[in-house]
Write a structure and sequence with these properties.
By secondary structure, the chain is an alpha+beta fold. Among the domains are: 114 residues, Beta Barrel (OB fold (Dihydrolipoamide Acetyltransferase, E2P)); 31 residues, no CATH class. It is built from 6 helices and 10 strands. Strands 1-2-3-6-5 form a 5-stranded mixed beta barrel. The protein has a two-stranded antiparallel ribbon with strand order 4-8. A hairpin with a 2-residue loop joins strand 1 and strand 2. The longest helix has 38 residues. The radius of gyration is 48 Å and the shape is rod-shaped. InterPro entries: Excalibur_Ca-bd_domain, SNase_OB-fold_sf. Pfam families: Excalibur (PF05901). This is SPBc2 prophage-derived endonuclease YokF. Its EC number is 3.1.-.-.
Length: 294
């Protein structure tokens, strides 16, 4: 009797709970479906945000880019201003490339013309100041294409050199550059037709020239003494003639004139290289002609 009742209870329990495992499995599958739906929605949200970010990076946004401080748009670095032609003297005659530097105030163009720079006077190449001037001119002009300017009615000097103001990129007016970069170059006191206002602007820069000692002295060969000869027989007395005018004083053999004033006083100016009295300190532009300027 008891066994019959136990079997009856077991049958009732089985009928009541026979669908429970399927309910558990169905609930588990439902949970997985919900989680998958939520994950897909999050991915769509992230994709939309990324798309907007990419659009902003490729120019989709119309707002200006901000600086690293986040306050104002970034600005480009300032451009250094060079001297323009507006405040330079003379009229532009062309642009030419510099092929050679003779000294601090004389250059040679690629076409072969020599240019004597207006307004300045550099130390001669035989002095320490002349060496410094030549080096400064090479640093400023060698190989560059320069702008040449002329004064009205002024073209060449008597040595067929072009008389020009020179303007170079990165340098500006070459005359002002040389005067303001050392004592090797001063204002030219002679007459080479630079504008008076331009000369005044150079003097305002404190253009006091100091050339220093000569680097070397070119000695001229001493004249040979004539071979001794027998004294001639005394000539018969003659009537005295008026004394001849004394010959102009010349520089002692093997020595150079002290300065151009002495050369002019002796009537020897201009003095050419190889002649008695010539010295590098008399030849300002080292062209072989000393004391050439009046």
């Amino acid at each position: 009797m008891n066994n019959a009742r136990r079997r009856l209870r077991d049958d009732d329990y089985w009928r009541a709970h026979r669908h429970q495992p399927w309910l558990v499995l169905g609930g588990f599958l439902l949970l997985i479906s919900v989680l998958a739906a939520i994950t897909g929605q999050d991915e769509e949200t992230l994709a939309g945000t990324g798309g907007r970010t990419a659009a902003g990076a490729t120019g989709g946004s119309t707002e200006p880019a901000l600086s690293r401080a986040g306050i104002a748009p970034e600005l480009s670095s300032p451009v250094s201003a060079e001297t323009t032609g507006a405040d330079l003297p003379g009229t532009v005659t062309g642009q030419r490339r510099v092929s050679q530097i003779i000294d601090g105030d004389t250059i040679v163009l690629a076409a072969g013309d020599r240019v004597r720079v207006l307004g300045i006077d550099s130390c001669e190449s035989g002095t320490s100041g002349g060496l410094a001037a030549t080096i400064a001119a090479r640093d400023a002009l060698r190989g560059k294409t320069v702008t040449l300017r002329a004064e009205p009615g002024v073209d060449r000097d008597r040595h067929d050199r072009l008389l020009r103001y020179v303007e170079a990129p990165g340098v500006g007016d070459f005359g002002r550059y040389m005067v303001s970069h050392g004592t090797h170059t001063g204002v030219y006191d002679g007459r080479n037709d630079a504008a008076s206002t331009y000369l005044a602007s150079l003097r305002a820069l404190g253009a006091e020239r100091s050339c220093g000692a000569e680097l070397s002295t070119r000695q001229q060969p001493a004249a040979r003494a004539p071979a001794p000869v027998d004294a001639p027989a005394p000539a018969p007395p003659r009537t005295a003639s008026p004394p001849a005018a004394p010959a102009p004083a010349r520089a002692p053999a093997g020595e150079a004139f002290k300065n151009c004033a002495a050369a002019r006083a002796a009537g020897a100016a201009p003095v050419h290289r190889g002649q008695p009295g010539y010295g590098p300190h008399l030849d300002r532009d080292n062209d072989g002609i000393g004391c050439e300027w009046s």
